[in-house]
From TrEMBL:
InterPro entries per UniProt: Ergot_Alk_Oxidoreductase, NAD(P)-bd_dom, NAD(P)-bd_dom_sf
Organism phylogeny: Bacteria, Bacillati, Actinomycetota, Actinomycetes, Kitasatosporales
Matches recorded under SUPFAM superfamilies: NAD(P)-binding Rossmann-fold domains
Domain NAD(P)-binding: 5-139
Source species: Streptomyces qinzhouensis
One protein family per Pfam: NAD_binding_10
Protein name: NAD-dependent epimerase/dehydratase family protein
Length: 284
């Protein structure tokens, strides 16, 4: 099995799950030095999605690929053609752009790219499985950890917007299961956590895990844009604001896909917060 995005937040865990299942694993990374962070049993290949021919050594004899797209769209067609030439099967980490809930129906350039890649995969005749995580629980680290570590107020827009954060470990476990076991070819799975929580409630859950109250202050959309200017592309900020606005007062879209595939209840956001509490403390 070849895992792309091998050092990322999902790909790295996919590697561990495949190794636990006794499956030989190859890892694709743009940075050869990243091999030091991977288990010794993993066969590491240097390659870059923006240079499709660089993937050939890793693909030869791989059988199946976990595809995480981390590059601009221009080489997507050439990469998918190479996958089809070398392997039988691909599990693609996409997004829930087909989901009717308004949270997922806002203009989103990444969702457009994901839809294009799905069409390319379907056109090749590759055996494929599409997994579509909703809101990643780990987004909280990028969004709120800096303020929480500094014991500051979390200043954020649309505190009443609801989502169902899904644990990265559950996403990775589903990816590994669908890669190495039969019965999932042609599958299309939206992955969510088990409960709908407002953003303000999620911050409160992190506070519970840390044993202290974390203050939450509502920002206006314009204040949020100013806060993230120069850090996050404006299109991404607009997409998030539109999605959160659409989710205010609407329970999050929930599925049973994680439980259906793994046979276990998906981790709650509270479990995720407890397990990652150290990341919200000073010095982490």
């Amino acid at each position: 099995m070849l895992v792309t995005g091998a050092t990322g937040r999902v790909g790295r865990i996919v590697i561990d799950r495949l190794l636990d299942a006794g499956v030989p694993v190859r890892a694709l990374t743009r940075r050869p030095e990243a091999a030091a962070t991977l288990p010794a049993k993993v066969e590491v290949f240097a390659g870059d999605l923006t240079v499709p021919e660089s993937l050939d050594p890793a693909l030869r004899g791989a059988g199946a690929v976990f595809l995480v797209w981390t590059a601009p769209p221009r080489t997507a067609e050439a990469v998918v053609e190479r996958l089809a030439a070398h392997v039988r099967r691909v599990v693609f980490l996409s997004s829930p752009h087909r989901t009717p809930h308004p949270f997922f129906q806002q203009p989103n350039p990444m969702a457009v790219l994901h839809a294009d890649i799905e069409r390319l995969i379907a056109a090749t005749g590759l055996e494929s499985t599409i997994i579509r995580p909703g809101m990643f629980a780990s987004n909280s680290l990028a969004w709120w950890a800096p303020a929480i570590r500094s014991c500051e107020v979390v200043r954020w827009p649309y505190g009443a917007a609801e989502s169902a954060p899904v644990d990265d470990r559950d996403i990775a476990a589903v990816a590994a299961r669908t890669l190495c076991q039969g019965g999932y070819i042609g599958g299309d799975y939206v992955l969510t956590g088990p409960e709908s929580l407002t953003q303000a409630a999620q911050v409160g859950v992190i506070g519970d895990a840390l044993g202290r109250r974390i203050a939450f202050e509502e920002l206006t959309p314009d204040e949020f844009r100013s806060l993230w200017e120069g850090t996050v592309p404006g299109s991404a900020v607009d997409m998030l604001l539109a999605a959160w606005s659409a989710a205010v007062g609407r329970p999050a879209y929930l599925t049973t896909a994680v439980a259906d595939i793994l046979g276990t209840t998906p981790r709650t956001y509270r479990q995720w917060a407890v397990d990652h509490a150290i990341a919200f403390t000073k010095g982490s």
